[in-house]
Amino acid sequence: MLTTIIYRSHLSDDVPVNILPGMIEKACELNTRHQVTGILLFNGTHFFQILEGPEEGVIDIYTRICTDKRHHNVVELMRDYSPSRRFGNAGMELFDLREHDRATVLQAVLDKGTSRYQLTYDDRGLQFLRTFVEAREKENYFEVLPYDYWDFIADEEAAPASEEGFKFIPVVDPLGRKVTAIEAIPEDQPTSLQDAARFEHDLAAVKQCLLKAGMAIPDGVTLYVTVLPMTLATIPDAVDQLVSTIEAAGLVPEQIILGVSETQVISLLDEFASAVKRLKQAGISLSIDNFGDGSAGLSLLAYIQPDRVRIGAGIIRDIHRSGPKQAVVQAVIRCCSALEINVIAAGITRPEEWMWLEAAGVIDFQGSLFTPEGASIAWPEFREVI
């Protein structure tokens, strides 16, 4: 069995194009030692390469490629497996698109095919290649600056005050330099209780969050609290209790976002939907959290019609390097945009993750990149790297 990796990258600005012949010669030697075939396309700015061969060799070469400073924005578009090679023998072949006509370069690549079956446009690898040759990938590809183009400057005054037993984590608009919401999280969240007791405890914790936050956060700030979806579905007067607590805390329902996790199994979907209806009638907004990490996905989005979606950290991690993650998140963003649902990206730890998501249209973020120590917010400031 052979492994295939397809990636795309951007030639670094300070690297001259005339290095290509020497680079290809060395890559050919390395590929041959690892029994890996490389089909490399270059359009003057971007590289596109198909690597195929034994898994260990392909991964070793791709790891070297990812750390090569002669290019950046390395995005893995596909990782797949096949019974035989699509192209040639071990080595490397360059197709410089500046020297080929679009109409003929695909056939030139096809002519290198060595599989038992003629390559067709149905082959996923060739589909990626064709998209690159025809320059149709631009709508799905965002350039991300190197991480060291940004400094993150701490602003202690912007951070929410802490309260004993609770953490307050901001949702921020980094480029707008503003806090768009504050999430209140109880530090004690036991999970060993049985379901009925767990849901009662969960509701009590949410109510305590509301009361504490009412004393701690500034007037008019949007407050984000999370609740187990089954708490709403199984406790008949849960919504009424929440509304009463909001009033007792000196808050108004319209400034509350209630988040429920997609990863929590909702076995009483009709009861949950009924509770959501009562929440919205009271003026409380709903967010589906950990979106993309669970199994409900778009069906829950269509059924519940939330006001917000918070994309889970699992699908955000290293999104700037993963074509499949980028495609999924872009689909979620487009869907939410069509439904006028605000998107929050959680778990941001790297500048490249934030930059890619900003380019994709996300404005609101959470993560250690912006709250590195919890006591302050770090705002990004652009700096020119010389």
TrEMBL record:
Coiled-coil annotated residue ranges, if any: none
InterPro entries assigned to the protein according to its UniProt record, in alphabetical order: Acylphosphatase-like_dom_sf, BLUF_domain, Cyclic-di-GMP_PDE-like, EAL_dom, EAL_sf
CDD domains (UniProt xref): EAL (cd01948)
Gene3D superfamilies per the UniProt record, alphabetical: 3.30.70.100, EAL domain (3.20.20.450)
Domain named EAL: residues: 125-386
GO molecular function: blue light photoreceptor activity; cyclic-guanylate-specific phosphodiesterase activity; FAD binding
Pfam families: BLUF, EAL
Domain BLUF: 2-93
Signal peptide: none
PROSITE patterns, sorted: BLUF, EAL
Protein's name according to its UniProt entry: Diguanylate phosphodiesterase
Organism: Pantoea wallisii
